[in-house]
Design a protein that fits this description.
This protein is of the alpha+beta class and 217 residues long. It has a four-stranded mixed β-sheet. 25% of the residues are buried.
């Protein structure tokens, strides 16, 4: 596992936009992760970065862009500065990363679900001062964490659970209208009745939430 440089746009107002400001079909913009709130497994894909060749040349002229072999790779990232414990998440192949989102790569350039599960477990936030807002979660703190061994059966079970948590976290993220993959508002789509009024939809949504809570209890 290793970590490499990241993008520094230098001209945020010109080169960065909120995801909601750019059509999902745009070919000139790519999603970019910029840290964000405490969120584990997936999410926090709030921004897009200008990505045509001439703009990439501008980034490179400032010495702040990683080699092309790291573009569009699936890996693990986290927020560099946080007021709580670090939260590790999946970085999708459609997403790039900048200076406030350190990223872990492996030689296969794919997310290691077993490693993600270890990083998101309760044992990892004990890295002392790196969990406070005035102390960035530096790459070196993460790279020196011990990785425990696990038998094949246990490791497969852990990876399966991690994959399920990633899917759940991504589904949760995509219910927000600011997400690029947002499809519909759950408040209005909780019922299959196309003529459902807003007040009836809200009542159905509350009932659905109560049922979900009851199932967890």
């Amino acid at each position: 596992v290793f970590s490499v440089g990241r993008i520094k746009a230098h001209d945020g107002p010109k080169c960065l936009r909120w995801s909601r400001e750019v059509p999902r079909t745009s070919l000139h913009w790519r999603q970019i992760v910029k840290g964000g709130d405490y969120r584990r497994h997936a999410g926090n894909e709030e921004f897009v970065v200008d990505w045509p060749p001439q703009v990439l040349a501008f980034y490179e002229s400032k010495g702040r862009i990683y080699p092309e072999r790291f573009v569009g790779k699936e890996e693990i990232y986290w927020s560099k500065i946080t007021s709580v414990a670090p939260s590790f998440r999946l970085k999708c192949v459609t997403t790039e990363y900048d200076s406030v989102s350190p990223t872990l790569f492996n030689t296969e350039y794919r997310c290691d679900e077993f490693l993600l599960a270890l990083l998101t477990c309760i044992a990892c936030p004990s890295e002392g001062d790196c969990s406070h807002s005035e102390h960035p979660n530096r790459r070196c703190h993460v790279l020196v964490l011990p990785v425990c061994e696990a038998g094949t059966e246990l490791k497969e079970a852990i990876c399966t659970n991690a994959k399920n948590l990633i899917v759940s976290a991504m589904d949760d993220w995509n219910i927000f209208e600011t997400a690029w993959d947002f499809q519909s508002l759950s408040l209005l789509s909780i019922s299959i009745d196309p003529s459902l009024a807003l007040d009836s939809g809200y009542t159905a949504w509350i009932a659905n939430n109560k049922q979900a809570i009851a199932e967890m209890v």
